Fold these 3 entries.
Entry 1:
Amino acid sequence: MLFDNLSINTISSRFDELANELIKSERMRESVDPERSPSALRETMFRLIDILQLVDQPKENESDNTLSEDELNELGDYGINLLMDFSALATELELNKESREFEDLALPLALWLGRHLGHIKTLEPIVNALARLANTYQDNAELEQLYEVVQELLNTVSPELKTRKKQESTSEPWRILLINQAIIATRSHRPGLIERAYEILVEYIPDEAPAFFKEGMSQMDALNYPQQVREVVEKYYNLWSSPRTLH
């Protein structure tokens, strides 16, 4: 299972390795803004990690919550934005690999938050990390596991993001997440997953469904998809290719 046994400690360990690379690189260059230096940002992240680690600690009672839901949501979103700051700083220092890896850490952090009943509002680095991960997978079983990861993320997204209008730019990563889940499901060749993903897509972004299914049909021959996948895609294409009217 992907991202099994996630803890703040495992995320923190990889973060520390990456942060040290930034600090080494910064020392060989002209000093940046002291408040945005890798050392200062690392200390800020470590203070946040110290708080989040309390959530992972065993509790005597199920009701013994260290943080409220609102506090966990706020701190989690702060952590994701800190990772974006590190990613941007790594890019400034021409550490492109580390920049991507900082952004990639937003994905396990978001999953950890969801498993502790938190919600996320900042989706852009998570969507980017997921897309990179999906591009490395070809095996159907791996793609099926990745689909379940995306489903976890969908359940973790803040409800207010799911209901924002299309013209609001902040909602765009949410829409991309839905489309990516549908693509991952299609690539898995699992008809049941494909149906589930398509139903979610048409529920939240029906205006984009016709174009998505039209593109899907064009890919069936181009990429030689098996018949059971073609049948599902064709079903949804036929349902959504004509203008829908109210009766």
Entry 2:
Amino acid sequence: MRPQDLEPEMEAWLQRAFPRLDEEIEGASSGEVDEIRRIVGHDLPRFYEWFLLRMGRSMGRIGVTSRFDYTARRVLWCYEQGLAEPDPNDLLIGFDTTNDPMGLQIFYDFTRPCRDDAMTGKGEPDAGPVYPEFETFREHIGWGKTTVLLVMESPSHCAGVLASRTPGQNAVDQLKKFMTRHGFDQPLPTGSYCGIFMRTDMTMTCTRSILVKTDTLAFRLGGQSQAWLRRFLGEIALSDDLELHEDMLEWGGSSR
């Protein structure tokens, strides 16, 4: 099987969101992948196999904005330098390159498998993923790159908070239903803690805490004009399920 065939939805999203990216990315060698597999002592999640084989040496332009180095060579270097100890339960996959003394590293948590992948979180090199962030590395990459490179590069964009009008309901699940009714695609499989939504005129991402039980979510929305985005936010505010915290909206880009 070709590496491209391991993650057809991810491949389709990359082609749609970042045309011609295939000319820029470069995969890790099979030897490097084998070395990483030996570190953990078991098979890697399907998504991580795909990631390493497709862009484990270079992520092209989608890797330029990241403070973390996810390359196979960096992962192997971290273990060669003793920055992390081999553990079948986790793997350091993202190294903070900013030299920030307070910086945390990105880890896989193999005790939390999910959708042919596993949870990712941040932590000290010797502590592992003590602060869970995403149910999967797939969501970690998809949500992050969509937010930074698509939403925040839109002519107009905003950040805000939505809450469920029904206590105990998951605002992410409610937003997914709303966005589907309004013609948005969800290009990547996501769970109940984040969402990625694309339409020809707008792109939106959302996330809610894994650590803390909450009825709220944080979102970012991008499009061609602030007026168009405000109109859409008005539709959300009038919905039966979701409440928009208008006093918490933050705007960027063009004000038209």
Entry 3:
Amino acid sequence: MNGSDSLTERFILEMEKKIVNGEYDINTMLPSFRKLCDEYNVSRSVINTAVAVLNTKGFVDIIPRKSVRVRNWKKQGTLLTMNSSIALGKLEPETVDSFFDIFAFIQCNGVYEAASKATEEELIQLGKIIEQEALLKDEKKLAALYHEFYKKIADISGNMAYSQVFMSLEQAIYAISDIYVPDASAKQQCMKMHNNIYQALKARDGQKARWEMQALSDHLKVLVEYKTSNLKRK
């Protein structure tokens, strides 16, 4: 990554923060490109690239010959919008609800399909992930292992949409993991429920696997809602 790329990424992140935090309110125009260049000490090319990325992520609308308007990103954004807003710590109750609705949909349907499609080699790989869970203490590595488990299930399902949606929310998935992984009881519960899902997959019982995945999603949702509400009270 060169210096220009790094500067552009930092500027995009700063703009996302200001939009998500309401400093640039919905349906208002961003400052002119000249003002942005002066305020952030960046070139016009950095602004142009950043605006294009923000548009792709669903944060802004580009109005030809006028300016750039902040989109109603909560209602008219994309999965990339949700991914960025959660990664930035925007964890309002409706955002958490929406995230887990999507997570449950792709994982519950994915694991149901995976039960009939998983090869013996793929089941062995999932089993190794379960074994590693019991040994890992490092929270970052454990979060990465959870990510690998869920991504593997989406991939095994053979449904390209499940894998693509999962990857579109990758930053959000890690951000959510950072909330519950440090909780010792949550780690124990995840390990138990992951093993239940794995055993259902080995038995080729799609209904059981889907039920276990839904139970896991519901459990994590309640835990994340509880922890985020406590953080706000503090």
